[in-house]
Structures are given as C-alpha cells and as structure tokens.
Amino acid sequence: MTEIFEKIQGRSGSDSKNQYSSSSDPSFKISLSSTPSVSVETAEAKGTTEYDNQNVSTSYDPILLPDRLKNVYEEITTQVKQIEKTKDSEEQPADSRKKSNEAIPSTDTKTENLKTLEPQNDPLKTPPSSHSQLDNSFYKASEPMASNQIMGRLVVRLRQARNLLISSMHVEPYAVINYDKTEVVTPSSKKDAENGMGITIPCKTRTVNENFPMSPSLIQSELLFAEARAPRWDFETVFDVINPESAVSVSVYDRLNNDFFLGSVKVVPVLLNEYLNEGWYKLEPLDLSQPFEGEVNIQSIFEQSEITRFGPEDFTILRLIGKGTFGHVYLVQKNDTGRIYAMKKISKKLIVRKREVTHTIGERNILVRTSLDESPFIVGLKFSFQTDSDLFLITDYMSGGELFWHLQHEGRFREDRAKFYIAELVLALEHLHKHDIIYRDLKPENILLDISGHIALCDFGLSKANLSSEDTTNTFCGTTEYLAPEVLLDDKGYTKQVDFWSLGVLVFEMCCGWSPFYAPDVQQMYRNIAFGKVRFPKGVLSQEARSFVRGLLNRNPKHRLGAIADAEELKAHPFFDDINWSLLAKKKLPPPFKPQVQSDLDVSNFDQEFTNTNVRNINLNGPQDSVNGSTPLSNTMQDRFKGFTFTNKSLEDRFEGFHVDEFSERDRLKDSVRNEKNGFDKDDPVADSVFGETFEG
Ligand SMILES: Nc1ncnc2c1ncn2[C@@H]1O[C@H](COP(=O)(O)OP(=O)(O)OP(=O)(O)O)[C@@H](O)[C@H]1O
What is this model's ipTM? Predict the structure, then answer.
C-alpha cells in the first residue's frame, strides 16, 4: 500500500499538499467513472474530452496541478460550469446539492498561499465548518456519480498529528479511523527516534528568558513534550468504497490515559481515480465552544474497481464468531482489500423449510436501506450475494462483541453506562421507526459493540418494514423475555410500540442484572409479561430511571412512553437530562466502556465455543451441513431469492406485505394466558401504580 502513495507522490514529483497526481505516461487519464462520463486525456495524447454525465460536477485548484495539466483543468472547469448552468437552467434548486466535507484541511505555511481560487459562494466549494478558522482548499465532486459507478478501494494513510492538546509527555496516542461504518484502530504512535525523524518544537515552548537560560534537563523535557504533541503513525489501511458520500473520520485517543479523547475530524475524500487527497486537518473537541488545538495529516487515494459483484470466492474465512437459527456468522477477510468483515451464511433450504424466506429477504432489504442511508447504530451491510445453496450477508465486523457477552461477564452495568447504550438504542429505534420499520427483536444478543464501544444493532431477521405509525401487524415473533404483552394478547395486532416495551425490559436488565419477567418456564414467563408485577431492587435505579422503566413497561401501548411522539418522547424524559442528543447522534460522546480489542482480527470478545472451531475445511460454494443435503432447490424456490444480491446498483426495495411465520402455538397460548386472568381488559388504561419497589404496568 505504501507503494501506492509513493507511486503517486513520485509521479507528482513533490510532497506538497493536495497535489494532483499525474503520470509521466502520456496516456494518463482523469477518469470520473468507469462508464463514459468525463474522461480527459493529457495534452500529449489526443486531448479528446467526452461529457455525458449531467451529475458530474467537480472543481480543481489549478495551482495544485502540474503545468501540463493546467489546460486540462481549465477545460474541465469550463465544461463543468456549463453543465452546472444547464442544470440550473433546468430549475434544479441550488440547495439540493449535498454539503460535502464536514471538515476542511488546515493550511500550513506551505499551503498558505494556495487559498481559495473560487469565489466564496461557488456551489462546488465545500462550506467551511462554522467553528473552524482555517481556510478550505479541499473540494469534492458535489454530486458524485451514481453509486453503482463508484466501487473500489480507498487507501487511507494517517501520517501524523501535531500540536495535540496534552497535559503530560507521558502519552500513547492512537487513532480510530472510520470509513462508512468500518473501523480500524492504529497502533500507538511511533517514537520519532524510531523513524529517524527530527522533531519540531512549537514556538511557544522555545521562548527563553535570557536571564535564565534553560537547563539541559529542561530543554530535554521540552523536547520530549514537543515530541509527545506530534505523534507519528504512518499507518495505512484500505477500505472498500460502496457509498460515495461516506467520510473518513479520524478520532485520536491516548491509550496510556484511559483512552482519553484528543479530538476527531471528518473528511469526505474526492473519489477520482488515483486522486491523492492530502492535508492537515484540524481536530475538533467534543465541546466546540472550548478552545482546542491539534491537527492530523491524512492522505487518501481512491482506486476504482471494475468489479461490481462479489461472491464467496472473494472472501477467506478466518473464524467462526456466532451461530444463529439459520446459519453461521464468520469473521472473514476480503481478498482484494484485506478488509475484515462479518459474513452471515444462511442456508436456503433451512429458511425455505422454516418458511422464513420473506423475513430473510426482508432482513437484507432493511440492511440495504439502512446502509445507503446514514443510519447511526445499525450494523452496516457491505455486500450480499448467493450461491445455489446459501445466502450471504457481509457486514462490518463489530469487534466489541455482543452486549450480552459483556452483561454476562459483568453481571450488571452502572446506570450511566446502561443509559449510554439505551440512549444510542433510542436513536437507532427512532431511525428505524421513521423509516416505518419495527425492529421486534431487541435483546442484548442483537446489540453489538464496535471497537470504540458504540452500539450497533444486528439481526433484522424479525424486523417488519413498511409499517407506518397507525399500522398494526400480528405476526407472533420475538424473544420471549422481551415480548410486549400486546404481541401475546391483542388480536388486532401491535404497533412500533413493541420496541419501546423491549427497551424497558433492557434498561431493567442492564441495571439490575436480571430480566423483569424471567421465569424458567416459558408459560410462566408469558403470564409474568401479561400480568406480573415488576420489582425494582433497592438502591439500584435512580428515581428517573424507575420512572423511565415504568413509562416503557406500561401494558397499554396507547399509554406507553413513546405512544404519542415516538422516540422524541423518550428523549425528553428526565432520565436523559444529561444526554446531549446531537453529540450522541454524531458518535461524539465517548462511550463509557471501550472493549479490549488489539487488532482488526481480535475475536476475544466472542465465545470461544465458536472462535475455537476449526474453519479450515469450510466450503463456501457448496452445501456443507446435513440440512442442505445434496438435492438442489427447485427453480421456483431459487426464484424466490432473486434480488438478494446487493451490488449497490439502483436500489429497488421490494418490501412485500408479508404475513408469514404465524406460530400455530399462538392461539393456544393466548387462550391459556386469558384464562388465567379473568376480566383483564387490555384497552383499559393500566394504573401506573408503584407499591414501594413493585409496580404493575
Ligand atoms: N457484524 C457482526 N459483527 C460481529 N458479530 C456479529 C455480526 N453479525 C453477527 N454477529 C454475531 O453472530 C451472532 C448471530 O448473528 P445473527 O443474530 O445475525 O444471526 P441469526 O441467525 O439471525 O440469529 P438468531 O437466531 O438470533 O436470529 C450475533 O449474535 C453476533 O454474536
């Protein structure tokens, strides 16, 4: 990978910022997409220019281009502006363009004179973020090519930081690099001595009072402090590019001081083939009103790929990390980029046999939908494909493991830690509900932690899409302990409110260490859910937390917290008084717990029962277990899986109104529960009474 940067830098013949990389090869092309859109050859070649993509608009800074490309630049700019004009005259609203970079590179002495060439109101220019005083010389194609045209690799290199705001020289800065929900952790910074690099001392530390010259030991400690403020990583990683809107975000922490947060920055790279993005980017603090220092040097290069479809042969299985009802989940490595993912392999025969085809296609569709959209706290789908016998979902690997795993190991969480997870879950549910999706299977096993300790929901196998706020559904599904009473009892069906009930169960379980309705016997558990009292253990939950749980565990869904204004109501509850929702949504609130993860390949947060399994002989291209057998599925059956493969081509969500998987057990169960409770009227407002430590929803 280093070679790529060296190649590019070598070509441009300089190390300066934001250089356009040109080749000495006269046939070198600036190509904006794999299909003919804007293709410009260099002066030495024919010089033909083709344009046909109305969506392309970009801008280059001519000062940054080698001389021989300046003409080309001018030609592009003129043509692009013409395209823009045409678009404007077609009455496309100017503000329909997406804002791009959330951060801008900072200027340094070298780039100071390379300031904006375009007028401030140029729509192609990224608006500087309000809190930054720095100039912006970083552009992106404001309306990138259709997403199906952009597939490739983004090589990102985090070189170093400078002027970090640290209080002592004893630090071990490392960074978490995130692109399109894929996270990578760098090792701690290298000492400059290891790099053979000299170090620079910031001016202010060099002021010397002539009457009191600095002693050698003072100079030495000044030097060490300056060195600590400018850690060097020279770390490279490669990401798969699927969503052209995605930003590279870099967050710097201090490993030595309890993962202390030293700032973060977000940059949307220019996705032009082999274009070198480089700059010093100002780090942002959590609280933007505070003065803050620190910058990072980030380079990235996009390499376009011709491949638009992937299959099992493009991945290598490394470990088994989980088993679900319909298949196994593996830690895999993508062969071309080396990127690590989780691969869920689902047996077609098994889902046909269990009449779960619609749910499985539904899961894939919801993941596609949430992946193409900025969905916080939902595991990101990268690829989906199929063979004759199996379906495959490739998602970002959440190396922090299941919340269940941590809860099991720690017994229970402190309320502030539980609150953090619940708050992120509220945002995840808010997002799903806004998209008319009910999650229906909220439980600690389906809540994963990423490398930083943020949550990500996985397993949308039971989710139901296309259900607006008034709509009801009545499939009997979910995990017993978390089932809302109306799922058991209400013939008219249930609504999104079932997710908030499960959330109430979760808050209780996280803080108290057991589930409020748990019973070893399932029938008893149903009875507890329908009629049981909830007992709060003494001194565990604050008043606000109890009130929050009571609000959620209200048996009448019409009176449940969230019934009127969905997640907004939950967010406004006093339990969350100390949560800054906008910072939380941007993942800028530091998680209360950071999972121990040494590298991308670390599986220590998963059950050894899975991770110790030998996976060497697994054949992803054919049936491997007895359930698949050897008889192939009929063509009619295979047809039901059409559309599962996700190539990031135009998204045609095919959410069918489905009504499958009714458990025959359901009616029997309802009757038994009803018989127990004579006269229970589900429509009655249920008294929210609390008797000391006990309440009935
Ligand atoms: N992206 C991921 N990163 C890390 N681990 C994952 C990921 N996806 C799934 N897992 C692990 O695999 C387990 C099973 O995955 P999942 O719940 O999606 O499978 P399932 O077959 O739908 O399971 P279930 O039977 O519970 O419905 C998860 O609980 C988790 O431990």
Answer: 0.97
